[in-house]
Amino acid sequence: MAAETPWDQRLTRRLVRPLAGTRLRPNHITTLSLALGMGAGLLFARGETPAAGWGAALFMLARFVDHADGELARLTGRSSRLGYYYDYVAGALSSVALFTGIGVGYGGGPLGDWALALGLAASMAALAGMGFGLAADARRGTGHGPYPQWGPFELEDGIYLIGPITWLGGLAGFFVLGALGQIVFSAFRLRELQHARPAAAPSLENPRTREHT
């Protein structure tokens, strides 16, 4: 039985449909998503409550926009291996900005130097996970498989909780759990690489592939 299309993918598809006939390219949207993620990291790094609130909102928007590039690529047929890699790298760099920014911002708080150390560890895990994922995709000849899903919700949708949790004053706990989760996910990607089997005919096509130009 086919998995239900995730809610954010369905919504972004409706939002980008009017853009299919314009000069906007999927890579433009990827760049916007990356810029939003970097901006969120800078706001978190300030270590101020109002800035963190805006940073959380910006990061939620970045993750949502991250789905729009693939949808525009599918609607317009503008798919490419370069766009696929760019989207992968942009997502990882946004995670680096998030964890490093929060780590810097919380350096003067209760977590002390552990905040920066944890942020850097999670950032390194995000980059390593990206490398493991790309290597597994190259070995299989397919795009990465879908995240665990329950109805219209995916495991990765948990990142949208960063907004409400931050606004309610629980960013520190979210940061610790999120950083540890990133490290565990990187280990999962490594295991995925170790068990990846070469495909007979290389292809990057699957329902969640985010190839585009």
Write a brief structural summary:
With 213 residues, this protein is an all-alpha fold. The chain has 7 helices and 2 strands. The chain has helices at residues 7-16, 26-45, 49-76, 81-105, 113-140, 162-167, 171-195, and strands at 149-150, 153-154.
Oligomer: single chain
Number of DSSP-assigned strands: 2
CATH superfamily membership, which one? CDP-alcohol phosphotransferase transmembrane (TM) domain
- Straight-line distance between termini: 31 Å
CATH architectural designation: Up-down Bundle
Q: Total helix count? A: 7
**What is the helical fraction, as a range of percent?**
55-70%
Unreliable spans are 201-213
Mean pLDDT, all residues: 84
Summing up helix and strand content along with how strands pair, one would put the structural category as mainly alpha
The first-level CATH class is given as: Mainly Alpha
* SSE order, one letter for each helix or strand: HHHHHEEHH
- CATH topology-level name: Four Helix Bundle (Hemerythrin (Met), subunit A)
Please characterize this protein's 3D structure.
By secondary structure, this protein is mainly α. The chain has a single domain (7-14, 23-195), classed as Four Helix Bundle (Hemerythrin (Met), subunit A) (Up-down Bundle), CATH 1.20.120.1760. It contains 7 helices and 2 strands. It has a two-stranded antiparallel sheet with strand order 1-2. The longest helix has 28 residues, at 49-76.
